[in-house]
From TrEMBL:
Protein name, per record: Fe-S cluster assembly ATP-binding protein
Keyword match Nucleotide-binding: yes
PROSITE patterns referenced in this protein's UniProt entry, alphabetically: ABC_TRANSPORTER_2
Family: Belongs to the ABC transporter superfamily. Ycf16 family.
Domain ABC transporter: 2-246
GO terms, molecular function: ATP binding; ATP hydrolysis activity
SUPFAM superfamilies xrefs: P-loop containing nucleoside triphosphate hydrolases
Taxonomic source organism: Ulvibacter litoralis
A Pfam family it matches: ABC_tran
Stored InterPro entries: AAA+_ATPase (IPR003593), ABC_transporter-like_ATP-bd (IPR003439), FeS-cluster_ATPase_SufC (IPR010230), P-loop_NTPase (IPR027417)
Gene3D superfamilies: P-loop containing nucleotide triphosphate hydrolases
Residues in the signal sequence: none
Length: 251
């Protein structure tokens, strides 16, 4: 589904990603971990097309197609989704209106008519129930005066409604207490299927207790320096990153 080969990227002549290689298949969950400043959020931004980052070398393939020149909305239409670490507030635009617009733009890109209102309302109700979201929440302005947990749950609600092929969760666990974390993780787990894939970017192993990854990758100074199973996440929790830095130095 996603194939990244020797990807180099940066911003304003500063190299941040220095040769990323990763392959994500349908049905898989990949976790990307690493200390601050290692390039995790940059990788998410480059995959989804944030304009200030420039790809200088390598391949970025989504379902076999080179997407490195596509605009963010074109990538979204193809089935990419990014859950933001810091979701922005949009006063005056309700959660429901925002999601209706996003879904219909996706449909328009595929040459489809707008989703009928009755179908849209039925879907909103089903997904809100799935994620234990109060209906009143849906009429509020997007992210305005939302708690950290509400913002993150809203991101997962958008993911549920848009049904992306590949969802990237950029530090969805940051700022969440354990109850909010469980609700968000439970939502992600309910949405996982053999036809979609998830990349989870996180500092901490605790999220991976609830969203269990098939693979864990350690990003350090713009490179994936170690990959393994969930056990690698436990080892990082216990030992930190210094031992990996030493390993990289010795290699």
């Amino acid at each position: 589904m996603l194939e990244i080969k020797d990807l180099h990227a940066g911003v304003a002549d500063k190299d941040i990603l220095k040769g990323i290689n990763i392959s994500v298949k349908a049905g898989e969950v990949h976790a990307i971990m690493g200390p601050n400043g290692s390039g995790k959020s940059t990788l998410a931004s480059v995959i989804t097309g944030k304009e200030e980052f420039e790809v200088t070398k390598g391949e970025l393939l989504f379902e076999g197609e080179d997407i490195s020149e596509l605009d963010p909305e074109e990538r979204a239409h193809k089935g990419l989704f990014l859950s933001f670490q810091y979701p922005v507030e949009i006063p005056g635009v309700s959660v429901t209106n925002f999601i209706k617009t996003a879904i219909n733009e996706n449909r328009k890109a595929k040459g489809l008519e707008d989703m009928p209102a009755s179908e849209m309302l039925k879907m909103i109700k089903e997904k809100a129930d799935l994620l234990e979201i109060d209906r009143k929440f849906l009429s509020r302005s997007l992210n305005e005066s939302f708690s950290g947990g509400e913002k993150k749950r809203n991101e997962i609600f958008q993911m549920a409604m848009l049904e992306p092929k590949l969802a990237i969760l950029d530090e969805t666990d940051s700022g969440l207490d354990i109850d909010a974390l469980k609700i968000v993780a439970n939502g992600v787990n309910k949405l996982k299927s053999k036809d979609n894939a998830v990349i989870v970017i996180t500092h901490y192993q605790r999220l991976l207790d609830y969203i269990v990854p098939d693979y864990v990758h350690v990003l350090l100074n713009g490179k994936i320096v170690k990959s393994g199973t969930k056990e690698l996440a436990y080892e990082l929790e216990e030992r930190g990153y210094d031992w990996i830095k030493e390993e990289v130095k010795l290699a």
